[in-house]
């Protein structure tokens, strides 16, 4: 394989000095056949073709999203024999959005298919210049990067379990948990994201997950041995949830629905007076699930409202 440097020098000798294949071959110590192909037939060495294609790629929003996704469920395969950008996920809407972003950015046509054995959607693009560009370049739009990163590694949860603590007077105070999280082994990247949130006046916390190196974990139905410490970056306050929903969100329907449920749980705290009276009269006589169904409020909202009413109006636990 001939180097890019020899090709560039040969083309310069041809354009500036008008030298023929024989003279160029002698000067560069490159076979005359290769030089002839370059200056007469327009052939370009593979490495040079890759360089030209890479220079045509633009660092835009689509690239930033793709780069973010490759930090999680997506990844790069870079070796002398094979160059690929790959995404493996269980959500079809995520796979389709990733393919759209990848194809729009590269002007290529990536492969999308469903793997029955693992129940996963796969998006694959076999292009060296694309894989190298993703690997070598930083993003221009950090918000778009976070969108891809959260789609790959993020989650949203709101507990529907009856839990809480015992007050000094012996009564139980129920609470529910709302979290939008991001899980990864790259602690430095999570710290960078935390700093970004801080600049936008959003408070987040980073916690080390309980799994230890060597533990066996099950992800997407498959067993894995934990090789690195894992960390989670959590948003756990209303302002953060609202900022996330407005600026980042999820392209995955089931995850975005959970974010909407989290936001809805705050509005549900403003109950009509008749619902409050019903809760005061019936709480402890029937289950919280039955109250939730009767009033049309979420189960977490029932627990939370009961806790607040216990403080303000002194209702008792059943």
Task: Give a verbal description of the structure.
The protein is built from 14 helices and twelve strands. By secondary structure, the chain is α+β, with helices and mostly antiparallel strands. It has four domains: about 5-55, no CATH class; about 55-140, Endonuclease I-creI; about 140-250, Homing endonucleases (Endonuclease I-creI); about 270-318, Arc Repressor Mutant, subunit A (Orthogonal Bundle), CATH 1.10.10. A four-stranded antiparallel sheet has the order 1-2-4-3, with helices on one face. A hairpin with a 4-residue loop joins strand 1 (about 75-80) and strand 2.
List descriptors.
318 residues, Endonuclease I-creI, four-stranded antiparallel sheet, 14 helices
Largest sheet: 4 strands, antiparallel
Taking all Cα atoms into account, the compactness measure Rg is: 28 Å
Taken from the alpha-carbon principal axes, the silhouette is elongated
Domains, number: 4
Q: What is the mean predicted local confidence, pLDDT? A: 82
**What's the CATH architecture of the largest domain?**
Roll
Strand arrangement, largest sheet? 1-2-4-3
Could you give a quick summary of the protein structure above?
With 318 residues, the protein is of the alpha+beta class. The chain has 14 helices and 12 strands. The N and C termini lie far apart (80 Å).
Question: SSE layout and pairings?
Answer:
Blueprint: H1 4-17, H2 21-28, H3 32-39, H4 46-56, H5 61-69, E1 74-78, E2 83-89, H6 92-106, E3 111-115, E4 120-125, H7 128-136, H8 142-153, E5 154-158, E6 163-166, E7 172-175, E8 178-184, H9 187-199, E9 204-208, E10 216-219, E11 222-225, E12 231-235, H10 238-247, H11 253-267, H12 273-282, H13 288-295, H14 299-312
């Amino acid at each position: 394989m001939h180097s890019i440097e020899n090709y560039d020098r040969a083309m310069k000798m041809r354009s500036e000095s008008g030298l023929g294949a024989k003279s160029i071959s002698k000067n560069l110590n490159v076979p005359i056949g290769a030089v002839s192909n370059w200056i007469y037939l327009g052939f370009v060495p593979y490495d040079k073709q890759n360089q030209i294609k890479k220079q045509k790629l633009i660092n835009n929003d689509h690239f930033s999203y793709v780069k973010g996704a490759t930090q999680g469920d997506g990844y790069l395969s870079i070796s002398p024999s094979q160059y690929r950008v790959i995404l493996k996920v269980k959500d079809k809407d995520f796979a389709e959005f990733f393919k759209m972003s990848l194809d729009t950015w590269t002007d290529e046509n990536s492969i999308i298919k469903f793997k029955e054995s693992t129940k996963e959607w796969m998006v694959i693009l076999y292009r060296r210049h694309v894989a190298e560009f993703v690997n070598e370049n930083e993003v221009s739009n950090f918000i778009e990067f976070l969108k891809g990163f959260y789609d790959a590694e993020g989650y949203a949860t709101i507990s529907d379990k009856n839990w809480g603590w015992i007050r000094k007077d012996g009564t139980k105070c129920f609470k529910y948990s709302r979290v939008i999280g991001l899980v990864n082994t790259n602690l430095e990247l999570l710290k960078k994201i935390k700093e970004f949130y801080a600049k936008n006046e959003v408070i987040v916390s980073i916690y080390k997950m309980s799994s230890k190196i060597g533990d066996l974990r099950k992800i997407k139905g498959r067993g894995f041995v934990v090789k690195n410490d894992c960390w989670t970056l959590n948003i756990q306050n209303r302002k953060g949830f609202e900022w996330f929903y407005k600026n980042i969100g999820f392209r995955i329907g089931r995850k975005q629905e959970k974010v909407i449920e989290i936001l809805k749980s705050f509005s549900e705290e403003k109950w009509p007076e008749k619902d409050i009276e019903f809760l005061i009269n019936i709480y402890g006589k029937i289950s919280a699930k039955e109250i939730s169904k009767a009033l049309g409020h979420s189960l977490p909202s029932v627990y939370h409202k009961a806790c607040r009413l216990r403080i303000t109006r002194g209702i008792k636990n059943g």
